[in-house]
Structure formats: structure tokens, C-alpha cells
């Protein structure tokens, strides 16, 4: 057949009505098991693929989930975290015959406008909210729309939509205890975007142990997760006095950029400065030395996000019993070649 086969073609070949073909293809009652099997076999032989738009009208489902990201599109292609997260999301959605609709937006207002349009046009059955902020209007807004949604991140103080999250406090403490044991007393952190919930949580966790562990100096500088900003902030830290002897980065892209700056300044890693990255992408294993990281299973994170949203879309749980929080395993410290004892002149016994 030179053209795309239709339900009519299948009906003629099977000697049944178009209604019977529709029942068989959509798994609905109305045809015998033998007739259903014959229709499905003919459809497969013809290479029939259901029209998604037509199917969505018949079953009141778009079979799609939306994700709008308020990030620079140029940075997403080199951001391993988002690529791994989306791979986990997409794998679970595909296994359930759902597609992923992705759009880059420039502001929260634009993002909410996208959700309103998608929902009004029946283009998605639910959405995923990324980069949760401290004072975030999006959860309340999508809840008011009646749009099924799951937040990627947390914990949310007063949740109106379900969320999936990691503990960001314990991993920070793991790094600080580790660096303290190695004799480091002057440490810094190249953090992510201010105003994001997980950035704020990490900020607080980084500040708390100053008195308890006896660090001499702790400094936090905020960036935007890009390599350019990571390099600029690292250069500032490593040319200041007193210079930190260890730096923790909130993602792997900035950590790799920081490592390059250390080399540029003639510093040896880890002899002069130790480096720790958050998220263990392949980038961290391709550097010299390889980067010590806080590693976590990002694809699994994305899969859990999709599972929860699909359960909300399918209304498998009543509002009273619905799971509002799914906590994933926290990141674990994985030492590699970029960390070592503090320089002898600064180490403290």
C-alpha cells in the first residue's frame, strides 16, 4: 500500500465495520476475542499506526506530558543533569505510550501561559514543574487550573501538588566532614541560582557546620550553572587571599570549568586545591584528575517523577490518600583524584 493505511482499509480487509475495528484497536468491548485478534493481525500486517490527535479526541486524552523549562536553550545541550533527567522521564512515559512535550520559556509568567494553552487545547494530560523556587506561584496556579502536575524537587512546605525530591542537607554534610578530616579549614562553594529551593537548602546546610567543625573561613558564591560563570567565580576565589583549599560546586559543568581555571593559574589539583562536583556525569570521569563527586541516580529520579504523574493523571488515588511526597535516595560522596589532604601550610591536625 503506497499510502498510510486507515481504519477503513482494515475494516474492508477484515470484512467488518469501522466501529468494530475501532473497538478492537482501542481494547474496548463490542467484538469477540477471535475478531479482535484477526483485526489486530491485519492492522499489524498493514503497518497501521493510530493517529494520536484523533485518538486523543476519542479517549479524552492527549497521551502526552508537558515540561516547560525556564533556562537558556544553549545551556541545556551541555547540561548533563537535564539530559539524564529527561531520559528517565521519557523512558517511563514511552513505556506507558505517553509522549513528552518540551518547551523553553523565558519567565514564570510565560511558563504559566504555556500551561494554560496546553491544557485548554488538550495537548497534555499533565505537566512537570522543574526548578522549584522558594516562593513559587506555579504549584498553586496549576492546581487552580485543575491541571495534573508533579513538582521535581522539594520538600514543599504546604504542598498542593505531589512532589519528588532528594535530601540536599546530608550530602553537604558528607562533603564537609570529609574535607574537614582531610585537614581543610578554608572552603568555598560555587552554588547555583539564588532563589531556587534546593540552592537555599544547600546554602543553609553549608553554613551550619562552621562552628561545629571549626572551619576558619566558609564562602558561598552564586552562579547560573554555566561553565563561563563557574570559571569566573573560581578565578575570583583562587586569586583571593586567603585562598580556599577546597571548593564544592553545585553541578558538574561548573566543576569542570573550575578545574580548568586551577590548571590555568598553575595550581595542582588536589595538591593546592581540592574540587568536589555535584552530580556524577561522564564529564567527571573524563577530566584529569577525575572529579570527586556527590553521585545520585538522575535517570531513576526522572522515572519516579513520571510514575507519580501518571498515577495522578490516571486518578489511581483519591485526593485523601494520594502520595504527595516521594523521596529518592540522597547523593553519596564518591572520592576520586580531585580531592586530597589540605596543603601542609594550612592543614590543621
Automatic annotation (TrEMBL):
SUPFAM superfamilies per record: lambda repressor-like DNA-binding domains, Periplasmic binding protein-like I
UniProt keyword Transcription, yes or no: yes
Domain called HTH lacI-type: residue spans: 5-59
Keywords: DNA-binding, Transcription, Transcription regulation
Molecular functions (GO terms): DNA-binding transcription factor activity; transcription cis-regulatory region binding
Superkingdom of origin: Bacteria
Pfam entry (one): Peripla_BP_3
UniProt protein name: LacI family transcriptional regulator
Amino acid at each position: 500500500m503506497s499510502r498510510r493505511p486507515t481504519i477503513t482499509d482494515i475494516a474492508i480487509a477484515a470484512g467488518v465495520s469501522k466501529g468494530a475495528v475501532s473497538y478492537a484497536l482501542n481494547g474496548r468491548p463490542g467484538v469477540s476475542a477471535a475478531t479482535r485478534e484477526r483485526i489486530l493481525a491485519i492492522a499489524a500486517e498493514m503497518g497501521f499506526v493510530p493517529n494520536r490527535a484523533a485518538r486523543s479526541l476519542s479517549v479524552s486524552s492527549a497521551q502526552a506530558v508537558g515540561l516547560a523549562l525556564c533556562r537558556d536553550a544553549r545551556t541545556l545541550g551541555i547540561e548533563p543533569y537535564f539530559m539524564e533527567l529527561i531520559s528517565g522521564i521519557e523512558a517511563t512515559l514511552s513505556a506507558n505510550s505517553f509522549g513528552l512535550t518540551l518547551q523553553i520559556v523565558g519567565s514564570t509568567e510565560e511558563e504559566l501561559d504555556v500551561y494554560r494553552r496546553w491544557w485548554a487545547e488538550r495537548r497534555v494530560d499533565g505537566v512537570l514543574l522543574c526548578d522549584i523556587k522558594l516562593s513559587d506561584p506555579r504549584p498553586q496556579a496549576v492546581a487552580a487550573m485543575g491541571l495534573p502536575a508533579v513538582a521535581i524537587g522539594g520538600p514543599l512546605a504546604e504542598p498542593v501538588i505531589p512532589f519528588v525530591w532528594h535530601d540536599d542537607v546530608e550530602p553537604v554534610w558528607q562533603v564537609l566532614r570529609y574535607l574537614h578530616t582531610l585537614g581543610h579549614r578554608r572552603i568555598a562553594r560555587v552554588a547555583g541560582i539564588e532563589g531556587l529551593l534546593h540552592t537555599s537548602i544547600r546554602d543553609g546546610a553549608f553554613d551550619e557546620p562552621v562552628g561545629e567543625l571549626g572551619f576558619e573561613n566558609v564562602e558561598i558564591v552564586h552562579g547560573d550553572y554555566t561553565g563561563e560563570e563557574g570559571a569566573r567565580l573560581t578565578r575570583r576565589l583562587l586569586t583571593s587571599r586567603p585562598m580556599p583549599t577546597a571548593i564544592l560546586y553545585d553541578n558538574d559543568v561548573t566543576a569542570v570549568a573550575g578545574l580548568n581555571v586551577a590548571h590555568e593559574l598553575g595550581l595542582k589539583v588536589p595538591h593546592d586545591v581540592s574540587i568536589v562536583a555535584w552530580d556524577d556525569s561522564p564529564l567527571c570521569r573524563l577530566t584529569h584528575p577525575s572529579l570527586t563527586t556527590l553521585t545520585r541516580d538522575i535517570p531513576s529520579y526522572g522515572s519516579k517523577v513520571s510514575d507519580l504523574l501518571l498515577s495522578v493523571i490516571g486518578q489511581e488515588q483519591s485526593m485523601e490518600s494520594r502520595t504527595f511526597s516521594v523521596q529518592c535516595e540522597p547523593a553519596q560522596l564518591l572520592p576520586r583524584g580531585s580531592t586530597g589532604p589540605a596543603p601542609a601550610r594550612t592543614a590543621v591536625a
